[in-house]
């Protein structure tokens, strides 16, 4: 059973990814600061289904200096890590001119420095095994921009550049690196959008709807599976045609 590490796997998009990948036969290692009732229920359901499994390991991804030991611990416990999904991140909004400096720093730390550092330690073992899949969760706003999300958009654009360059570094060793760029997904991170903003997003979309978490989870499953064997350094947009 192949191991896939998903950050931010206790709720929202990460939880749906965990459920989907467990159903596809992977052993998912969900990482978050704490578990949730929804994650506990998903773990029990995966055990009953018997296809894959969901395990939970608590960790604060803001603790950059502890990431190396955390990855070593996971490898000792679970063995080789086949997949890494860098899903965790902050969605803090705010007009740049009035954002607090500490909020800017926290966004960059959690959305850029943490996933890059985690990938550094995970991809080393993938290179040694000469197989592995990395999927970074970016966003369409990295390309389009969005008022009030300038810092968030910058962090998601950084992950696209990271994806393309790392794919070239590790490709010859059998490791693929791709990004998923969801549109506005109907999760807790978009709950602050008003009805008018939601309607505007839907009107702009070719398919006239918001993206569901399962849509993104299916895309991640594709990139981790046989279909993603010869796909690397790309950004797969899942936005119901919002940027078409």
Would you give an account of this structure?
α1 runs parallel beside α2 (37-49), α1 (12-23) crosses α8 and α3 (67-78) packs parallel to α4. The protein has helices at residues 12-23, 37-49, 67-78, 101-129, 141-144, 150-170, 195-204, 213-224, and strands at residues 3-7, 27-32, 53-58, 81-86, 132-137, 175-182, 235-238. The protein is 46% helix and 17% strand. It has a 7-stranded parallel sheet, sandwiched between helices. The radius of gyration is 17 Å and the shape is globular. It is built from 8 helices and 7 strands, in the order βαβαβαβαβααβααβ. The protein has 244 residues and is α/β, with parallel strands linked by helices.
Number of helices: 8
What's the shape?
globular
Measured distance between first and last alpha carbons = 38 Å
Share of residues in strands: 15-25%
Major β-sheet, in short? 7 strands, parallel
Low-pLDDT sequence parts = none
Helix content: 40-55%
Number of strands: 7
Gyration radius (Cα, Å) is 17 Å
Strand order of the largest sheet: 3-2-1-4-5-6-7
List SSEs in N-to-C order. EHEHEHEHEHHEHHE
Structural class, please?
alpha/beta
Mean pLDDT: 92
Give the secondary structure arrangement, pairings included.
Elements: E1 3-7, H1 12-23, E2 27-32, H2 37-49, E3 53-58, H3 67-78, E4 81-86, H4 101-129, E5 132-137, H5 141-144, H6 150-170, E6 175-182, H7 195-204, H8 213-224, E7 235-238
Parallel strand pairs: 1-2, 1-4, 2-3, 4-5, 5-6, 6-7
């Amino acid at each position: 059973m192949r191991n896939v590490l998903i950050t931010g796997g206790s709720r929202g998009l990460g939880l749906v990814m965990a459920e989907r990948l467990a159903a596809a036969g992977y052993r998912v290692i969900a990482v978050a600061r704490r578990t949730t009732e929804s994650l506990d229920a998903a773990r029990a359901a995966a055990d009953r289904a018997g296809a894959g499994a969901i395990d939970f390991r608590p960790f604060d991804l803001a603790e950059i200096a502890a990431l190396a030991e955390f990855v070593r611990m996971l490898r000792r416990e679970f063995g080789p890590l086949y997949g890494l999904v860098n899903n965790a991140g902050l969605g803090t909004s705010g007009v740049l001119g009035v954002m607090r400096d500490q909020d800017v720093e926290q966004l960059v730390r959690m959305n850029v420095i943490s996933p890059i550092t985690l990938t550094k330690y995970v991809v080393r073992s993938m290179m040694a095994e000469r197989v592995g899949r990395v999927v970074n969760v970016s966003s369409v706003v990295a390309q389009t921009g969005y008022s009030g999300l300038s810092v968030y958009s910058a962090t998601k654009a950084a992950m696209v550049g990271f994806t393309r360059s790392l794919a070239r570094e590790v490709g010859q060793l059998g490791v693929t690196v791709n990004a998923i760029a969801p549109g506005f997904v109907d999760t807790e991170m978009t709950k602050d959008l008003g009805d008018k903003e939601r309607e505007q997003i839907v009107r702009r979309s070719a398919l006239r709807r918001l993206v569901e978490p399962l849509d993104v989870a299916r895309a991640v499953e594709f990139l981790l599976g046989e279909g993603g064997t010869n796909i690397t350094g790309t950004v797969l947009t899942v936005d119901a045609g919002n940027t078409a």
